[in-house]
Amino acid sequence: MSETWKAIRPATAILVCASIMLTLSMGLRQSLGLFMQPMTRDIALTVSQFTFAIAIQNLAWGLAQPFTGALVVRTGYRPVMVGGGVLYVLGMVCLALADGMWLVMIGAGVLIGVALACNASSIANAVASRAVPASVRSTVLGLVSAAGSLGAMLAAPLGQSLQDAYGWRAGVMGFVVVAAALIPMGWIAGRVDRVPLPPVPPDAVGEEDDARKMALAALRHLPFMVMTAAFFVCGMQLVFLTTHLPSYLDLCGMDPMLSAKALGMIGGFNILGSLFFGWAGERWSKTGLLGVLYISRSFVLAWFFSAAPTTESTLLFAGLMGFLWMGVSPLFAGAVAEMFGLRWQAMIQGIAFFSHQIGSFLGAFGGGLVYDAFGSYELAWRFGVGLGLAAGAVQLAFAMMRPPAAMAH
Known about the structure:
80% of the residues lie in helices and 0% in strands. With 409 residues, the chain is mainly alpha-helical.
Protein backbone atom coordinates (compact mmCIF):
# COMPACT_ATOMS: atom_id res chain seq x y z
CA MET A 1 0.00 0.00 0.00
CA SER A 2 2.96 2.33 0.70
CA GLU A 3 4.19 1.88 -2.88
CA THR A 4 0.73 2.71 -4.19
CA TRP A 5 0.63 5.86 -2.05
CA LYS A 6 4.06 6.94 -3.30
CA ALA A 7 2.81 6.62 -6.89
CA ILE A 8 -0.42 8.50 -6.14
CA ARG A 9 0.90 11.27 -3.88
CA PRO A 10 2.13 13.73 -6.58
CA ALA A 11 -1.33 13.67 -8.17
CA THR A 12 -3.35 13.99 -4.94
CA ALA A 13 -4.97 17.37 -5.71
CA ILE A 14 -5.92 16.29 -9.22
CA LEU A 15 -7.42 13.00 -8.04
CA VAL A 16 -9.31 14.54 -5.10
CA CYS A 17 -10.89 17.25 -7.24
CA ALA A 18 -11.69 14.83 -10.08
CA SER A 19 -13.38 12.58 -7.50
CA ILE A 20 -15.43 15.44 -6.04
CA MET A 21 -16.40 16.56 -9.55
CA LEU A 22 -17.52 13.02 -10.35
CA THR A 23 -19.40 12.51 -7.10
CA LEU A 24 -21.34 15.76 -7.40
CA SER A 25 -22.25 15.36 -11.06
CA MET A 26 -23.38 11.75 -10.62
CA GLY A 27 -25.02 12.17 -7.22
CA LEU A 28 -27.21 15.05 -8.36
CA ARG A 29 -28.42 13.40 -11.55
CA GLN A 30 -29.05 10.07 -9.78
CA SER A 31 -31.33 11.85 -7.31
CA LEU A 32 -33.60 13.65 -9.79
CA GLY A 33 -36.16 10.83 -9.54
CA LEU A 34 -37.01 12.10 -6.05
CA PHE A 35 -38.81 15.06 -7.63
CA MET A 36 -40.83 13.08 -10.19
CA GLN A 37 -44.06 12.48 -8.22
CA PRO A 38 -44.46 15.99 -6.70
CA MET A 39 -43.37 17.70 -9.92
CA THR A 40 -45.78 15.74 -12.10
CA ARG A 41 -48.63 16.62 -9.73
CA ASP A 42 -47.67 20.30 -9.44
CA ILE A 43 -47.07 21.29 -13.08
CA ALA A 44 -49.36 18.78 -14.80
CA LEU A 45 -46.75 16.51 -16.34
CA THR A 46 -47.22 12.80 -16.92
CA VAL A 47 -44.69 10.28 -15.65
CA SER A 48 -43.68 9.52 -19.23
CA GLN A 49 -43.06 13.23 -19.94
CA PHE A 50 -40.77 13.55 -16.92
CA THR A 51 -38.94 10.37 -17.80
CA PHE A 52 -38.66 11.53 -21.41
CA ALA A 53 -36.66 14.53 -20.11
CA ILE A 54 -34.36 12.15 -18.20
CA ALA A 55 -34.10 10.03 -21.34
CA ILE A 56 -33.11 13.14 -23.33
CA GLN A 57 -30.50 13.87 -20.66
CA ASN A 58 -28.97 10.44 -21.16
CA LEU A 59 -29.11 10.74 -24.93
CA ALA A 60 -27.53 14.22 -24.88
CA TRP A 61 -24.84 12.91 -22.53
CA GLY A 62 -24.08 10.00 -24.82
CA LEU A 63 -24.11 12.08 -28.02
CA ALA A 64 -21.83 14.75 -26.55
CA GLN A 65 -19.36 12.40 -24.83
CA PRO A 66 -17.26 11.40 -27.88
CA PHE A 67 -17.00 15.07 -28.89
CA THR A 68 -15.97 16.32 -25.45
CA GLY A 69 -13.50 13.43 -25.30
CA ALA A 70 -11.99 14.54 -28.62
CA LEU A 71 -12.08 18.18 -27.51
CA VAL A 72 -9.80 17.57 -24.51
CA VAL A 73 -7.08 16.43 -26.92
CA ARG A 74 -7.20 19.88 -28.57
CA THR A 75 -7.97 22.24 -25.66
CA GLY A 76 -7.02 20.28 -22.55
CA TYR A 77 -9.26 19.03 -19.75
CA ARG A 78 -9.66 22.27 -17.79
CA PRO A 79 -11.84 24.26 -20.24
CA VAL A 80 -14.08 21.25 -20.82
CA MET A 81 -14.61 20.50 -17.12
CA VAL A 82 -15.18 24.12 -16.07
CA GLY A 83 -17.62 24.64 -18.94
CA GLY A 84 -19.48 21.53 -17.86
CA GLY A 85 -19.86 22.93 -14.35
CA VAL A 86 -21.44 26.12 -15.70
CA LEU A 87 -23.88 24.12 -17.85
CA TYR A 88 -24.84 21.95 -14.86
CA VAL A 89 -25.77 25.00 -12.78
CA LEU A 90 -27.83 26.45 -15.64
CA GLY A 91 -29.64 23.14 -16.10
CA MET A 92 -30.61 22.95 -12.43
CA VAL A 93 -31.83 26.56 -12.48
CA CYS A 94 -34.07 25.79 -15.47
CA LEU A 95 -35.50 22.78 -13.64
CA ALA A 96 -36.17 24.78 -10.48
CA LEU A 97 -38.06 27.43 -12.48
CA ALA A 98 -39.97 24.97 -14.69
CA ASP A 99 -43.71 25.48 -15.12
CA GLY A 100 -44.18 23.01 -17.95
CA MET A 101 -42.55 20.35 -20.08
CA TRP A 102 -40.16 22.54 -22.10
CA LEU A 103 -38.06 23.93 -19.24
CA VAL A 104 -37.88 20.45 -17.71
CA MET A 105 -36.67 19.16 -21.08
CA ILE A 106 -34.08 21.90 -21.53
CA GLY A 107 -32.83 21.88 -17.93
CA ALA A 108 -32.96 18.26 -16.74
CA GLY A 109 -32.57 17.00 -20.30
CA VAL A 110 -30.25 18.88 -22.63
CA LEU A 111 -28.15 21.11 -20.34
CA ILE A 112 -27.46 18.57 -17.62
CA GLY A 113 -26.87 15.89 -20.26
CA VAL A 114 -24.14 17.91 -22.01
CA ALA A 115 -22.69 18.93 -18.62
CA LEU A 116 -22.31 15.27 -17.65
CA ALA A 117 -20.31 14.68 -20.83
CA CYS A 118 -17.85 17.29 -19.48
CA ASN A 119 -17.44 16.25 -15.85
CA ALA A 120 -18.82 12.78 -15.16
CA SER A 121 -17.32 9.29 -15.40
CA SER A 122 -15.58 9.26 -18.80
CA ILE A 123 -13.71 12.52 -18.27
CA ALA A 124 -12.98 11.90 -14.58
CA ASN A 125 -11.60 8.42 -15.33
CA ALA A 126 -9.46 9.77 -18.17
CA VAL A 127 -8.06 12.44 -15.85
CA ALA A 128 -7.26 9.84 -13.18
CA SER A 129 -5.69 7.47 -15.72
CA ARG A 130 -3.32 10.16 -16.98
CA ALA A 131 -2.38 11.41 -13.51
CA VAL A 132 -0.82 8.15 -12.23
CA PRO A 133 1.52 5.36 -13.44
CA ALA A 134 0.04 2.32 -15.19
CA SER A 135 1.12 0.04 -12.31
CA VAL A 136 -1.51 1.53 -10.00
CA ARG A 137 -4.06 2.72 -12.56
CA SER A 138 -6.80 0.14 -11.91
CA THR A 139 -6.61 0.66 -8.14
CA VAL A 140 -6.69 4.45 -8.59
CA LEU A 141 -9.69 4.20 -10.93
CA GLY A 142 -11.42 2.17 -8.23
CA LEU A 143 -10.57 4.81 -5.63
CA VAL A 144 -11.85 7.66 -7.81
CA SER A 145 -15.04 5.75 -8.61
CA ALA A 146 -15.46 4.95 -4.91
CA ALA A 147 -15.04 8.58 -3.90
CA GLY A 148 -17.34 9.50 -6.77
CA SER A 149 -20.03 7.33 -5.23
CA LEU A 150 -20.55 9.56 -2.21
CA GLY A 151 -22.71 12.03 -4.14
CA ALA A 152 -25.95 10.06 -3.94
CA MET A 153 -25.46 9.60 -0.18
CA LEU A 154 -25.36 13.38 0.19
CA ALA A 155 -27.64 14.62 -2.57
CA ALA A 156 -30.61 12.29 -2.06
CA PRO A 157 -31.20 13.04 1.65
CA LEU A 158 -30.54 16.77 1.06
CA GLY A 159 -33.03 16.95 -1.80
CA GLN A 160 -35.68 14.93 0.06
CA SER A 161 -35.31 16.97 3.26
CA LEU A 162 -35.64 20.31 1.45
CA GLN A 163 -38.56 18.96 -0.56
CA ASP A 164 -40.38 17.73 2.56
CA ALA A 165 -39.88 21.06 4.33
CA TYR A 166 -40.31 23.61 1.53
CA GLY A 167 -41.46 21.83 -1.65
CA TRP A 168 -39.74 20.32 -4.66
CA ARG A 169 -38.52 23.67 -6.06
CA ALA A 170 -36.53 24.26 -2.87
CA GLY A 171 -35.03 20.79 -3.23
CA VAL A 172 -33.88 21.57 -6.76
CA MET A 173 -32.48 24.97 -5.66
CA GLY A 174 -30.43 23.11 -3.07
CA PHE A 175 -29.00 21.12 -5.97
CA VAL A 176 -28.15 24.39 -7.77
CA VAL A 177 -25.92 25.41 -4.86
CA VAL A 178 -24.22 22.01 -4.79
CA ALA A 179 -23.69 22.03 -8.58
CA ALA A 180 -21.81 25.35 -8.35
CA ALA A 181 -18.93 23.50 -6.66
CA LEU A 182 -18.26 21.69 -9.96
CA ILE A 183 -16.63 24.81 -11.37
CA PRO A 184 -13.66 25.13 -8.96
CA MET A 185 -13.25 21.34 -8.84
CA GLY A 186 -12.90 21.22 -12.63
CA TRP A 187 -10.39 24.07 -12.56
CA ILE A 188 -8.10 22.34 -10.04
CA ALA A 189 -8.43 18.89 -11.64
CA GLY A 190 -7.42 20.58 -14.89
CA ARG A 191 -3.82 20.58 -13.64
CA VAL A 192 -3.65 17.16 -15.28
CA ASP A 193 -3.05 19.00 -18.57
CA ARG A 194 0.54 19.52 -17.39
CA VAL A 195 1.14 15.76 -16.94
CA PRO A 196 2.93 14.29 -19.99
CA LEU A 197 1.32 11.33 -21.76
CA PRO A 198 3.03 7.95 -21.16
CA PRO A 199 4.07 5.69 -24.05
CA VAL A 200 1.32 3.65 -25.70
CA PRO A 201 1.18 0.05 -24.33
CA PRO A 202 2.97 -2.36 -26.70
CA ASP A 203 -0.10 -4.56 -27.26
CA ALA A 204 -2.50 -1.63 -27.76
CA VAL A 205 -4.20 -0.73 -31.02
CA GLY A 206 -1.97 1.64 -32.99
CA GLU A 207 -2.54 5.26 -31.98
CA GLU A 208 -3.65 7.65 -34.72
CA ASP A 209 -3.15 11.42 -34.81
CA ASP A 210 -6.61 12.01 -36.28
CA ALA A 211 -9.75 11.63 -34.12
CA ARG A 212 -11.77 10.11 -36.96
CA LYS A 213 -9.12 7.48 -37.73
CA MET A 214 -8.80 6.56 -34.07
CA ALA A 215 -12.57 6.26 -33.71
CA LEU A 216 -12.72 3.94 -36.74
CA ALA A 217 -9.88 1.83 -35.30
CA ALA A 218 -11.88 1.43 -32.09
CA LEU A 219 -15.03 0.47 -34.00
CA ARG A 220 -13.08 -2.28 -35.81
CA HIS A 221 -11.69 -3.69 -32.55
CA LEU A 222 -13.82 -6.70 -31.62
CA PRO A 223 -13.19 -6.83 -27.83
CA PHE A 224 -14.14 -3.18 -27.58
CA MET A 225 -17.33 -3.70 -29.58
CA VAL A 226 -18.37 -6.61 -27.35
CA MET A 227 -17.89 -4.40 -24.28
CA THR A 228 -19.80 -1.61 -25.99
CA ALA A 229 -22.79 -3.85 -26.74
CA ALA A 230 -22.93 -5.08 -23.13
CA PHE A 231 -22.62 -1.48 -21.96
CA PHE A 232 -25.97 -0.75 -23.64
CA VAL A 233 -27.73 -3.14 -21.25
CA CYS A 234 -25.80 -1.74 -18.29
CA GLY A 235 -27.17 1.73 -19.00
CA MET A 236 -30.71 0.46 -19.49
CA GLN A 237 -30.79 -1.33 -16.12
CA LEU A 238 -29.22 1.40 -14.03
CA VAL A 239 -31.13 4.39 -15.35
CA PHE A 240 -34.41 2.47 -15.14
CA LEU A 241 -33.62 1.99 -11.48
CA THR A 242 -32.53 5.56 -10.60
CA THR A 243 -35.49 7.04 -12.49
CA HIS A 244 -38.26 4.66 -11.44
CA LEU A 245 -37.33 3.20 -8.05
CA PRO A 246 -38.81 6.17 -6.08
CA SER A 247 -42.01 5.92 -8.12
CA TYR A 248 -42.16 2.12 -7.70
CA LEU A 249 -41.78 2.38 -3.93
CA ASP A 250 -44.40 5.15 -3.81
CA LEU A 251 -46.84 2.90 -5.71
CA CYS A 252 -46.17 0.14 -3.21
CA GLY A 253 -47.14 2.46 -0.35
CA MET A 254 -43.66 2.79 1.14
CA ASP A 255 -42.42 5.81 3.13
CA PRO A 256 -41.12 8.49 0.69
CA MET A 257 -37.92 8.83 2.72
CA LEU A 258 -37.19 5.16 1.96
CA SER A 259 -36.44 6.15 -1.65
CA ALA A 260 -33.83 8.65 -0.49
CA LYS A 261 -32.37 6.08 1.92
CA ALA A 262 -32.22 3.47 -0.85
CA LEU A 263 -30.47 5.84 -3.26
CA GLY A 264 -28.10 6.82 -0.48
CA MET A 265 -27.46 3.14 0.29
CA ILE A 266 -26.62 2.54 -3.37
CA GLY A 267 -24.11 5.37 -3.17
CA GLY A 268 -22.56 3.97 0.01
CA PHE A 269 -22.10 0.45 -1.34
CA ASN A 270 -20.79 1.90 -4.60
CA ILE A 271 -17.68 2.71 -2.59
CA LEU A 272 -17.08 -0.92 -1.63
CA GLY A 273 -17.87 -2.17 -5.12
CA SER A 274 -15.60 0.38 -6.81
CA LEU A 275 -12.70 -0.42 -4.49
CA PHE A 276 -13.17 -4.16 -4.92
CA PHE A 277 -13.46 -4.15 -8.71
CA GLY A 278 -10.59 -1.66 -9.04
CA TRP A 279 -8.43 -4.03 -6.96
CA ALA A 280 -9.69 -7.10 -8.83
CA GLY A 281 -9.04 -5.48 -12.22
CA GLU A 282 -5.28 -5.54 -11.51
CA ARG A 283 -5.43 -9.30 -10.86
CA TRP A 284 -7.99 -10.80 -13.25
CA SER A 285 -9.47 -10.14 -16.67
CA LYS A 286 -11.30 -6.82 -16.64
CA THR A 287 -13.68 -7.94 -19.40
CA GLY A 288 -14.41 -11.21 -17.61
CA LEU A 289 -15.19 -9.37 -14.39
CA LEU A 290 -17.60 -7.16 -16.34
CA GLY A 291 -19.51 -10.25 -17.46
CA VAL A 292 -19.75 -11.58 -13.88
CA LEU A 293 -20.94 -8.18 -12.69
CA TYR A 294 -23.73 -7.90 -15.29
CA ILE A 295 -25.03 -11.41 -14.54
CA SER A 296 -24.98 -10.83 -10.77
CA ARG A 297 -26.77 -7.51 -11.11
CA SER A 298 -29.55 -9.10 -13.18
CA PHE A 299 -30.17 -11.81 -10.59
CA VAL A 300 -30.45 -9.16 -7.86
CA LEU A 301 -32.97 -7.16 -9.93
CA ALA A 302 -35.05 -10.28 -10.54
CA TRP A 303 -35.10 -11.14 -6.82
CA PHE A 304 -36.22 -7.66 -5.69
CA PHE A 305 -38.95 -6.97 -8.24
CA SER A 306 -40.47 -10.46 -8.10
CA ALA A 307 -41.95 -9.83 -4.62
CA ALA A 308 -43.59 -6.89 -2.80
CA PRO A 309 -40.92 -4.65 -1.25
CA THR A 310 -40.39 -4.18 2.46
CA THR A 311 -38.12 -1.67 4.17
CA GLU A 312 -35.58 -4.42 4.86
CA SER A 313 -35.65 -5.94 1.37
CA THR A 314 -35.37 -2.50 -0.25
CA LEU A 315 -32.30 -1.54 1.75
CA LEU A 316 -30.70 -4.96 1.14
CA PHE A 317 -31.43 -4.62 -2.57
CA ALA A 318 -29.94 -1.12 -2.59
CA GLY A 319 -26.78 -2.38 -0.90
CA LEU A 320 -26.34 -5.25 -3.35
CA MET A 321 -27.00 -3.06 -6.36
CA GLY A 322 -24.66 -0.41 -5.03
CA PHE A 323 -21.85 -2.96 -4.77
CA LEU A 324 -22.46 -3.99 -8.40
CA TRP A 325 -23.06 -0.44 -9.70
CA MET A 326 -19.95 1.69 -10.18
CA GLY A 327 -17.63 -1.32 -10.25
CA VAL A 328 -18.15 -1.17 -14.01
CA SER A 329 -16.30 2.16 -14.14
CA PRO A 330 -12.72 1.16 -13.20
CA LEU A 331 -13.00 -2.07 -15.18
CA PHE A 332 -14.24 -0.39 -18.35
CA ALA A 333 -11.85 2.57 -18.17
CA GLY A 334 -8.90 0.30 -17.41
CA ALA A 335 -9.75 -2.03 -20.31
CA VAL A 336 -9.99 0.92 -22.74
CA ALA A 337 -6.61 2.27 -21.56
CA GLU A 338 -5.03 -1.16 -22.11
CA MET A 339 -6.56 -1.49 -25.58
CA PHE A 340 -5.85 2.01 -26.91
CA GLY A 341 -3.55 4.00 -24.61
CA LEU A 342 -4.42 7.29 -22.88
CA ARG A 343 -4.37 10.04 -25.50
CA TRP A 344 -7.79 9.20 -26.95
CA GLN A 345 -9.17 7.39 -23.88
CA ALA A 346 -11.89 9.93 -23.15
CA MET A 347 -13.10 9.92 -26.76
CA ILE A 348 -13.10 6.13 -27.09
CA GLN A 349 -14.88 5.71 -23.76
CA GLY A 350 -17.32 8.27 -25.11
CA ILE A 351 -18.04 6.11 -28.14
CA ALA A 352 -18.86 3.17 -25.88
CA PHE A 353 -20.76 5.47 -23.57
CA PHE A 354 -23.06 6.50 -26.40
CA SER A 355 -24.21 2.86 -26.51
CA HIS A 356 -24.66 2.98 -22.72
CA GLN A 357 -26.79 6.07 -23.04
CA ILE A 358 -29.01 4.63 -25.76
CA GLY A 359 -29.72 1.92 -23.21
CA SER A 360 -30.27 4.60 -20.58
CA PHE A 361 -32.77 6.34 -22.86
CA LEU A 362 -34.67 3.07 -23.19
CA GLY A 363 -34.51 2.43 -19.43
CA ALA A 364 -35.85 5.87 -18.47
CA PHE A 365 -38.39 6.56 -21.20
CA GLY A 366 -39.34 2.95 -21.90
CA GLY A 367 -40.02 2.38 -18.21
CA GLY A 368 -42.31 5.40 -18.18
CA LEU A 369 -44.18 4.22 -21.27
CA VAL A 370 -44.65 0.75 -19.79
CA TYR A 371 -45.99 2.25 -16.56
CA ASP A 372 -48.38 4.60 -18.37
CA ALA A 373 -49.63 1.73 -20.57
CA PHE A 374 -50.00 -1.02 -17.95
CA GLY A 375 -50.02 0.74 -14.59
CA SER A 376 -47.05 -1.33 -13.36
CA TYR A 377 -43.35 -1.87 -13.98
CA GLU A 378 -43.45 -5.67 -14.29
CA LEU A 379 -42.86 -5.91 -18.04
CA ALA A 380 -40.04 -3.34 -17.85
CA TRP A 381 -38.03 -5.11 -15.14
CA ARG A 382 -38.47 -8.54 -16.73
CA PHE A 383 -37.16 -7.18 -20.03
CA GLY A 384 -34.17 -5.60 -18.26
CA VAL A 385 -33.30 -8.79 -16.39
CA GLY A 386 -33.46 -10.93 -19.52
CA LEU A 387 -31.21 -8.64 -21.54
CA GLY A 388 -28.79 -8.30 -18.60
CA LEU A 389 -28.33 -12.05 -18.29
CA ALA A 390 -27.76 -12.40 -22.03
CA ALA A 391 -25.27 -9.51 -22.20
CA GLY A 392 -23.33 -10.75 -19.18
CA ALA A 393 -23.12 -14.29 -20.53
CA VAL A 394 -21.79 -13.11 -23.91
CA GLN A 395 -19.26 -10.76 -22.29
CA LEU A 396 -18.01 -13.48 -19.93
CA ALA A 397 -17.83 -16.18 -22.61
CA PHE A 398 -15.93 -13.89 -24.98
CA ALA A 399 -13.45 -12.88 -22.26
CA MET A 400 -12.80 -16.51 -21.38
CA MET A 401 -12.28 -17.54 -25.00
CA ARG A 402 -10.18 -14.64 -26.26
CA PRO A 403 -8.41 -12.14 -23.96
CA PRO A 404 -8.41 -8.52 -25.20
CA ALA A 405 -4.66 -8.42 -25.95
CA ALA A 406 -4.95 -11.40 -28.24
CA MET A 407 -7.50 -9.61 -30.38
CA ALA A 408 -5.52 -6.40 -30.99
CA HIS A 409 -4.81 -5.77 -34.62
